[in-house]
Amino acid sequence: MAETRQDSSGSPAGYTPIWLTANAFEITQLPTGRYHMYHVGKPPFLRRAGSAARLLGWLTIGELAEFDPPALRTYRIRLMQHLQTIVAPEIFTPPILYDGQATAYASRLLPHAKNENGAYFISMKSWKPLHAAGIGIIKIKFSLTSAEQIDPRHVYDLIQEKTRTPRALAALNLVQLLIQQGQNLYRTRKTWTSFNSTNGLKLEGSGLEVWDGIIQTVRPAHGRLIIVMQTSVGLAIDGTRSRPKSIRGLVPTAGEYFLHENELEPTVAQDVYTQLRNPKNIGVRLQSNDVVPLELCEVEPGQLFKNRLPYDLTTKFTRKAVVPPSSKMCKIKDAVQLSIHSKFILEAGMKISPSPITISAKLLLPPRIVFNPTDPHLTFKNGAWNTLQQGFTNPVAMKYWVIISFATETKKSIIFHDLRRHKSCIVESCTRLGKNGNVMNSCLSIRSVTNLGPSDVNESPFMVPAKISDDVEFTMSDAIKKYYDIQVFGLAEGQKPPITYSQYLRELMVVVILPGLSRAAPIRRRVKWWGDITLGVLTQCLQEGRLPTRQSRPNNISQYYNNVALKLNARLGGTNFYSDSQVMQQLKTDRFIIMGAGVRHPEHSVRRPSFTGVVYSLDDTATQYAALPGIQVPGVDRIMDLQDYVFQAIDTFGRKWKGPPKRLIFYRDGISETQFKSLALREISDIKSAFSKLWKKYEISRDKTPFPLLTYIVVGKREVKDGYTFAGTVVDSGVTNPAVPNFYLQSHSSKKDWQRQNASRSRHYSILHDENWHYDMQPLQELSYSLCHNYAKATCAISIPTPVNYADLVCSHGMLHFHPEEDDLDEESAYTYWNYEEKEIAMERWRKAFRKVHPNLETSMYFL
Known about the structure:
30% helix; RNaseH_sf; nucleic acid binding; Piwi; Piwi domain-containing protein; six-stranded antiparallel β-sheet; 4 domains; Rossmann fold; alpha+beta; Argonaute_N; globular
């Protein structure tokens, strides 16, 4: 791969011109023909009760698309390929393009099928067209959507005229399908990614394989179309090759099923040649009425694993999945060669350059990282810095704290023996980082336990042993109550305690040591429910397996507890450090607020709501944030309650700063380009509606106090360079979208750091509304880069702006807002939604069970 090289022509202040070799390839010649678009539809058909009957009875291929488990997509493509190559090759030559759903493109008008309604009835078992419906028969009907043909040259509306016309988007979709068509036939696909199943690496002890994947995306650029190639990895179930059987239904307690009507005959469990481990489990009934227990069935290969990977397999997966950039580029070039020689590309007359394009870029100067404002000297290299000899900008006193250990029984004696050392290490790190030469009296101080022998540890209210089987809430409540009793112990009768219990709870920090692996999750959920929702007490969880041991290197021990101190101070409301840049200094001249927002959807097979997260800054360095979590109907990308969230954020900000902000910079995660004109514009309207609502509430005159100037930026996960990239690399030409102002930013360093997962992933920033800088890219790039250095938990730049990352953390905490014993909700989450009405009914239950954060923590960073 070509190295990044610097431009010798000189540059304005603030950045250095460089050149990059991108993982993008130019389409040098568009398809030469025109295409007709067909809807692969679903005319009226016989509906049968039960999902099994739907798959076994008369279905249209469009019906299969409607009930879209993603695994059916590959089957639909195989059906279409069978129709074209085996059943009716004389009609489908040259072959049509099929997207696996309900859309097809043909370079000529298709003749009607020789039966009523012009439909084809096919079966994978038959080499000729069928003429009637029946078991296992699929109906395919092509309906011409419009008399107007799709001309690939219509993309010039977008790449030259910079206008997103419907015909340009249709042409873009056509070219995208041409690129993917070959991959659709020969590789397993999941959404945009195609996986190669021939070189999978087995994940030991899991029954899973790691597959290489390629994402090929056609994107418009200024004056040309390009194909951006990205590498990916996926998990697949390790299947076996055997003759597949058609399933007619399910049978309960399959092992006890009699082979014949005469109950004197043997059961399935007695007849099979191997002993069944679970004879009462379900089985499948085949076409011959044979019953096969489910545990004797084999998994069809080529099925992707869609569930969450178990914790103990994550490290193994990462070790196999992460490869050096040179290997990634080799895979990308191999994929390009396959596309160049694809029969669909050749028949269309389209040509692709085999060489990656070279683009001009900028290397932004890093912002100044400030710990102590009077001592600006800081070691800063490749997007990272060291806290050595540094003190927090604004340390907060941690007057009251408790350590509670839920360590496993086998390690409990070791953990308890090390509690004093853990405590002293936390004290040392917090005291060192809390010492700020300019504010000595405000240093982070911890009340430590002194003169305790080993026998005193179990009885110490500061360090409390507990069992995994203990009642978590009771154990923690009892511990903090005993600790408070010590604070007031020995007071004379009638003497006022030094602190009330409610104030004590607001200043208390509880450090919880969790057991390893899967045992940690249920305890952590109860800890967070107890602290975040019930009592309003700050909690910091530490994983037992990640605690430094006696064999750990001193530097590793120091680094670990320094990271703990970063989280503690930020949770308590302090500022660890901040980034200082020219654009941040300009913002400080007026009151400003920075917000981040995102939505996290449930997995395909999980029946849960989508979780929303909105955060907003509360200080003039954009380091302290408050969170507004919520839930909404699953699968909806728009934040439905955004107006209320923005209203609450500005209201809280205004009460703190004695007035509303003059500027609002809003970073939004998770919106695709196709949603820019619909979803994004509606959210911008929601934000401005929140302004109107707040001004009306406080009777504020817009003439004297105008609305905040709004900038709305969408942050997407896209990649333009798959290799070594310096922190601060910006691309704003060559591969950017011509329709909207946008740029790519690689904010964190990937140089010599490719082993970090997603180390070289750049982010795509689209500016959809800008009243602050009027679409001047330089300050927007500088601001976004600066905000990547404000993440309280890390001493390095992160890949996305801090408010976006915090919003994602808030979304990830979504299930912590429900009581751990909400059994009905847990049971419901095991199934999939089928229709909108069911969503609404379920959402009422979820909304009633959802609990807000305790008022004590509403403006704290409890979500870190």
